[in-house]
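Why should sequence recovery work at all? Because a backbone constrains its sequence more than one might expect. Tight turns favour small or flexible residues, buried strands favour hydrophobic ones, and helices have their own preferences. The token representation captures these environments compactly. In the example below, the structure is given first.
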């Protein structure tokens, strides 16, 4: 086997995987997720995903697909769900004690379908530890695990884990990644965020992407519209990643890892990211949990309506 971009440990693992095959040329790209090394190896139509402890060359195959070997794809057990959280921590401030104002659940059914479900930050739910409150307050109570538990209780989705970032972290991810290409259907002029975005195709930098994700007062449907915009950004990110090719995954994950907090392992995030390349764009839906907005305990809250409950139920197979 000829391996471009890998090391001796990776070559040994791949030689074992392709035992008996000849004329194999593979290209590896590597990165870092938390304290683990990651690698994507492409050989023709084959893809191999590997991880290794930091500062070692002890690689382990954690997933991929291998049509040349007539092996089935291995990208986790479906349906799969992870949640992206945007924490309202101001620049240079800790995420601890802040609130999760962006809650976007990404799911896949393993058959080419998927979806993104946005949850409004004011959704009234039972909170981990007792009592009820706005769903975004779960983060301030006990961080990511509590936020995931609150979302599980609301949606009944088996969410694997989370990736969370604050304001400055989100800007850093977008800027280091080279911006987010997106098409905006209607110009936005927000008085609160100061966002000024024209209609049409454009590339958002970190500052404008953050403003687009946070603006709600300029939108007719307020926080529901903001959640929709956040989902639109996630779809735009997925499209950019797909166009960049599966070999770009390690670099993208390295950037995200630098600016975020997560409880997902390298194997989990690597197989989830690779699986998005097998989605059919027309089979990926987008919904936002909406509902009535009564006042409870002196707060304006959201009580999910029948349509939102139906969307959460439909999403349990990983597809909207």
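From this structural description, the recovered sequence reads:
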């Amino acid at each position: 086997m000829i391996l471009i971009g890998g090391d001796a440990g990776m070559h040994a693992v791949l030689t074992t995987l392709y035992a008996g095959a000849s004329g194999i040329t593979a290209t590896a790209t590597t990165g870092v997720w938390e304290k683990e090394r990651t690698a994507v190896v492409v050989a023709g139509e084959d893809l191999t995903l590997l991880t290794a402890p930091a500062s070692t060359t002890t690689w382990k195959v954690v997933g991929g697909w291998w049509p040349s070997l007539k092996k089935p794809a291995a990208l986790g057990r479906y349906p799969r769900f992870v949640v992206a959280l945007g924490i309202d921590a101001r620049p240079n401030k800790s995420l601890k004690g802040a609130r999760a104002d962006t809650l976007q659940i990404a799911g896949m059914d393993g058959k080419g379908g998927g979806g993104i479900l946005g949850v409004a930050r004011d959704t009234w739910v039972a909170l981990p530890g007792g009592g009820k409150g706005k769903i975004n307050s779960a983060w301030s109570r006990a961080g990511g695990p509590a936020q995931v538990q609150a979302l599980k209780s609301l949606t009944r989705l088996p969410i694997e884990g989370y990736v969370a970032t604050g304001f400055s972290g989100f800007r850093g991810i977008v800027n280091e990644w080279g911006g987010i290409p997106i098409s905006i259907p209607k110009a936005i002029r927000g008085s609160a965020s100061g966002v000024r975005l024209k209609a049409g195709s454009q590339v958002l930098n970190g500052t404008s992407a953050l403003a687009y994700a946070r603006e709600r007062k300029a939108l007719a449907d307020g926080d529901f519209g903001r959640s929709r915009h956040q989902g639109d950004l996630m779809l735009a990110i997925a499209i950019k990643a797909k166009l960049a090719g599966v070999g770009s995954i390690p670099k993208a994950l390295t950037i995200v890892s630098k600016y975020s907090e997560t409880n997902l392992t390298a194997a989990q995030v690597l197989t989830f990211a690779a699986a998005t390349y097998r989605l059919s764009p027309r089979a990926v839906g987008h919904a936002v949990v909406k509902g009535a907005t009564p006042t409870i305990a002196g707060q304006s809250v959201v009580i999910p309506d029948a349509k939102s409950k139906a969307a959460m139920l439909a999403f349990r197979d990983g597809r909207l």
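A few observations help interpret the result. The mean pLDDT is 92.
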